[in-house]
Every structure is written in C-alpha cells, then in structure tokens.
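Example S7 (structure tokens).
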C-alpha cells in the first residue's frame, strides 16, 4: 500500500506542475493559431465596420484602434452617431440618443470596459508584462462541444474566461466578470467566422449578452477590417466643447424607436 500511495502523491504533485505549464502552452498555441506573436505585433492600427442586430432593431457599428491603447467605437442609427473613445488617458463620449450632442467624460463603468477594449493586442499578448495572470482551469463545454478553459485575471482584478476550441485553438467564447464598487457585472461574447487580415485571424461574427439578462443578445456581423491604415492620435482625442448659444435653446434629438 505504501508504494502505491507514494506514486499517487507523486502523480498529484506532477499534475499540479503540469497545470501551470499548460496555461502558458495554451496561450502560446492560441497566439500561434491567430498568426503568431510577430504578425500580431506587426499590426499597429485597425479599422472595422459592421452591423448590429438585436431582434428587429439594427444599427451600423464601427471601430478604430491604434497600438498600444487608443480606441474609438461608433454606433449609428437614423443618421445619429454615438461615439465612445479612449486616447490612452481620457475616456469620453457623445450621446445624441440621450439628448447630449457635446462631448463628455465617461463614467466609471463605461470607462473601465473601454480601457479593457483598448488593449490593442489583447490581454494574452505579453500578459505577464501587463500585470495579468493566466490559469488553466481544465476542460469545459460550449453548446455541447468540448473546450479548454483559461482564466485570465487582469491587473485591475477583472476576469476573462477564455474558451478555446481544441481543434483551431481560437477562442469561441469569452466571459467577462467585472467588479465595480462592490457589484459584479457578468457578460458573454461568442466569437466565430474567423478570417485572415494581414496574416492574423480576426472574428467577423460576435454575439453579446448580459448574464443577468439573456434576452439582451445582440449580434454583430463585421463587413470589413482594414489593418495598418494611418490613424492620427487626434482621432481619439476628446473634442473641445463648443460655446453655447445663449439666445437659442437647442432641440434634443429623440432616441430611435426600438
């Protein structure tokens, strides 16, 4: 009995060591599946356009990003465009659907999410240098299919659970857990229809929803992604607020019917 017990303990110890090594192996395989770290880092700007569909409601969406942490996204309905952007220091928005046409600083919740999206190369590239940690949780399932699960804890404490397809090694689902002022915000994003752009695979289909409201599902279909276009830093800067005309009260636009 004693030799058997020793062998079992040894196997447990080795499994624990292998678990730590497997996390880095899976990160390396995921990045290689996307095209490799060298090609990922060779892309320094990206611009995408697409369509959002949520039930009968639809909108045009766009994103512009620049390494290392500039980000701008737009949402257009009935000729009005909402903008959210981060210039590496400041996050701001223009929200015409809420009757506000002038730029304003973002609140904590929206800013935190935007800063995370602004990580141009993603949280797995150079994750240790960014202050992130990665753990291999083991096998899981997504819609009945077997997947690898990686837990990525960001420097700010938020968690991203990556579900990797064992064949392609690309992520097919990402769960985000945000901790803001003592409350937990959980969301899910399914990814698919990967296509090559400048030697790197990007998802061209994304479906997002909040775990607290599964009926909030919204699907984004990307029409095009262009890489390494010239993007000036001024594209991400908060515009100056124009002086108000005291003699005229501006009319606030009405939000679109959904």
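Recovered sequence:
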């Amino acid at each position: 009995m004693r030799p058997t017990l020793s062998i079992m303990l040894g196997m447990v110890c080795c499994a624990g060591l292998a678990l730590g090594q497997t996390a880095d192996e899976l990160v390396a395989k995921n990045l290689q599946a996307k095209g490799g770290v060298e090609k990922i880092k060779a892309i320094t700007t990206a611009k995408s356009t697409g369509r959002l569909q949520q039930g009968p409601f639809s909108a045009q969406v766009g994103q512009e990003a620049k390494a290392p942490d500039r980000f701008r996204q737009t949402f257009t309905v009935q000729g009005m465009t909402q903008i959210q952007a981060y210039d590496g220091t400041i996050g701001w928005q223009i929200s015409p659907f809420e009757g506000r046409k002038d730029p304003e600083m973002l609140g904590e919740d929206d800013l935190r999410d935007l800063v995370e999206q602004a990580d141009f190369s993603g949280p797995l590239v150079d994750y240790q240098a960014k202050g992130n940690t990665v753990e291999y949780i083991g096998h899981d399932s997504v819609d009945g299919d077997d997947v690898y699960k990686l837990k990525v804890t960001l420097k700010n404490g938020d968690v991203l659970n990556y579900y990797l397809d064992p064949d392609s090694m690309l992520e097919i689902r990402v769960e985000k857990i945000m901790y803001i002022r003592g409350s937990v915000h959980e969301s899910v994003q399914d990814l698919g229809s990967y296509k090559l752009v400048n030697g790197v695979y990007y998802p061209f289909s994304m479906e997002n929803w909040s775990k607290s409201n599964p009926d909030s599902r919204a699907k984004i279909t990307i029409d095009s992604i262009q890489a390494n276009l010239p993007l000036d830093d001024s594209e991400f800067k908060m515009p100056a607020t124009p002086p108000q005309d005291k003699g005229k009260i501006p009319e606030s636009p009405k939000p679109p019917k959904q």
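Notes on this example. The longest helix spans residues 2-34.
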